[in-house]
Amino acid sequence: GENVEQHPSTLSVQEGDSAVIKCTYSDSASNYFPWYKQELGKRPQLIIDIRSNVGEKKDQRIAVTLNKTAKHFSLHITETQPEDSAVYFCAAYNDYKLSFGAGTTVTVRA
Amino acid sequence: GAVVSQHPSWVICKSGTSVKIECRSLDFQATTMFWYRQFPKQSLMLMATSNEGSKATYEQGVEKDKFLINHASLTLSTLTVTSAHPEDSSFYICSAAQGYGGELFFGEGSRLTVL
């Protein structure tokens, strides 16, 4: 099955700085890569996603890049704000199901 | 986006009892729903894929006789934790997609505490 690795596990950034989270996947057949933000005790919320026929996608302060050859994708958050503090999960879709990374706890220091 | 509702949001039960959690897609039909378990400070682990009108597909290591899944309609899937024990205490989350390969919509999650 698919194996998704995510780094770093924790990330502390100063407000206004950028945050980058990286993920790798194992199965080249995976074709959809969403990113989720989860606050404590809440459901995961989709923040951005990218399909395998696209190399980059941006939505305001959030961007995702995908390198199919290397099988890795990254989340970039610019101009971080305190409300960006949460756990972020990457995921890869293959064989009709999503496999999640281990998560990154992002803390934005005011 | 589409709405997936999960009930109850939290439940406390005694060891040895069974607990049922419902997952409903409110404004779309979901042929397939997914059940995840999330322990504190960990990721979401897929337990099973629930298919309407057929048996669920369980992930390796998940006991199908302990975690009973029923997907009787296109808008409702249920997870029953049978003979619950303290180690079953966790956050259980369902999700559903509009078609294959589409965005997954998550329920609110159900926090189970087994005493």
Overview of this protein structure:
The complex is a heterodimer of chains A (110) and B (115). Chain A contains no helices and 11 strands. Chain A has 110 residues and is mostly beta strands. In chain A, strands 2, 4, 5, 9, 10 and 11 form a 6-stranded mixed beta sheet that branches. Chain A is globular. The mean pLDDT of chain A is 95. By secondary structure, chain B is mainly β. In chain B, 0% of the residues lie in helices and 52% in strands. Chain B is built from no helices and 11 strands. Chain B has strands at 4-7, 10-13, 19-25, 32-38, 45-51, 57-58, 67-73, 76-81, 90-97, 104-106, 110-114. In chain B, strands 2, 4, 5, 6, 9, 10 and 11 form a 7-stranded mixed beta sheet that branches. In chain B, strand 9 and strand 10 form a beta hairpin. Classes of the chains: A mainly beta (110), B mainly beta (115). Chain A binds chain B through residues 31-32, 34, 41-46, 49, 89, 93, 96-103, and chain B through 1, 32, 34, 42-46, 49, 91, 93, 100-101, 103-104, 106-109, 111.
Name the descriptors.
heterodimer; A: 110 residues; mainly beta; six-stranded mixed beta sheet; five-stranded antiparallel beta sheet; 11 strands; B: 115 residues; seven-stranded mixed beta sheet; four-stranded antiparallel beta sheet
